[in-house]
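Re: the pair you flagged

First of the two:
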Amino acid sequence: MHGLISYSVFRLIENIRHNIYFEARNLKFIRYVLWAYAGAIILQFFGALVNDIWNLNMNGLLSDQSSGGRWMIWIVVYVIYVMFKRGIALQDDANKIV
């Protein structure tokens, strides 16, 4: 999952460096980050649950970041996704007018 997040962020930054902002491929990369990060949050939650139930030492696998902090990051990425989605719609409208 971290590989998918890294790849998507790399491609998104590469597109922005080439002045490609509000296009569907950027939205696709942000969507990949959203799904992969949500999956990582869920896996960390179940890892913590297993750790609590069976008293396994999984400290190396789980981050010290609180669950609320992880969800706040996910919400910020979701807001960026919505902004890009709206930007693409506005870009399409502008292209139809011209």
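Second of the two:
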Amino acid sequence: MDLAVCGQAVMEEVQLMSRSYHEPVEVRLGRAAEHGVRVETALPAGVAGLSEGTGALVSEDPQVPAVFLWRGRLHLVQAVLGQWSLRVAWWRPEDRGGPMTTGRDRSELGDGSELGDGSDLGDGPGQEELERVVWRVEAGPGRLAGTGVYDLVQGERWWLERVAD
């Protein structure tokens, strides 16, 4: 095999590297156009927001994740690359639970006030929730910093499932 071709294959493999985190994040939704978020996928009708003046459904400027706080850093969403529903494996307690929060995580986060909503993180979505929404977004810790691809899962609480950079 040609060394240049082998090197290129290794570089492509490194570029497609992703890591799973399953950590709680705080997400703020906003209108895509208002926050400068590109929407590069067709979003379901339920994502459309209501017009402030008329109350009619507006699909041209949907509510999307605009910013999220992860590990103390604010990440600005630049693009929504995809959005889909994820069925929960109801027969597996670890899948029903959403992001698992260990005692160490709880002590680091205190009572949840650092997340801005004052709620307890708990063990994720309840048993009755059988579907979650996954948002694949391109984001970074600032407009000039490098970006990565983040999978944000929306249940009773938000969490970061995967990062590809």
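The first strand starts at residue 18 and ends at 24.

-B.
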